[in-house]
Design brief:
alpha/beta; 3-stranded mixed β-sheet; 39% helix; single chain
């Protein structure tokens, strides 16, 4: 959400606020491993207090359920290691956009997820870029991306163990969730 990094001689400090405990854990775990040997790091990463949750209206939940139904017929594919949407996924995204056009004004999260291959921090960045690529694609179709929130979760929310190629493929996904 916000932050500051400082480096003075061999003393580094990183402070700020993140939006979830998962992100705080990732920042804490990866920051220390990124510093060259001989550097000291002071971390002060806090989780922002969440606003009181209000349940989305039933018609918004129904709309997102329709999006999930469309998404169950295929998957949103990307070029390996990038946020470039594979052209084979355009028809699926167009169907999702058609559903979203009929939805009442709402806030819908587009969540990007990865498997556990590679660096945790890079997976978090990649998942965020992919979620934003989907948001931008749908925003062009809808005339605006207002109401669409992109969030990358990296490898922090697997739906299957990362023990086989098939399960890893299940964890590389885009999900939609009604927020308001």
């Amino acid at each position: 959400a916000s932050g500051e990094a400082r480096l003075e001689d061999t003393n580094a400090s990183l402070s700020g606020t993140v939006t979830s405990q998962e992100l705080a854990n990732l920042v804490n775990a990866t920051s220390k491993s990124r510093l060259p040997q001989g550097y000291d790091l002071a971390l002060d990463v806090k989780v922002a207090a969440a606003a009181p949750a209000t349940a989305p209206a039933p018609e918004i939940v129904a709309c997102v359920d329709q999006v999930k139904s469309v998404l169950s017929t295929g998957e949103i594919l990307f070029a390996s290691g990038s946020a470039n949407i594979d052209a084979k996924s355009h028809a699926l995204l167009d169907q999702i956009g058609t559903v979203l056009k009929a939805c009442p004004p709402s806030v819908i999260e587009i969540a990007g997820h990865t498997d556990n291959e590679g660096d945790d921090a890079l997976n978090l960045i990649l998942s965020d870029k992919r979620a934003n690529a989907v948001r931008n694609y749908l925003g062009k179709m809808l005339g605006s991306a207002d109401g669409l929130v992109a969030t990358g979760y990296g490898e922090t929310r697997p739906v299957a163990p990362n023990d086989t190629p098939e399960n890893k493929a299940k964890n590389r996904r885009i999900e939609f969730q009604a927020i308001q």
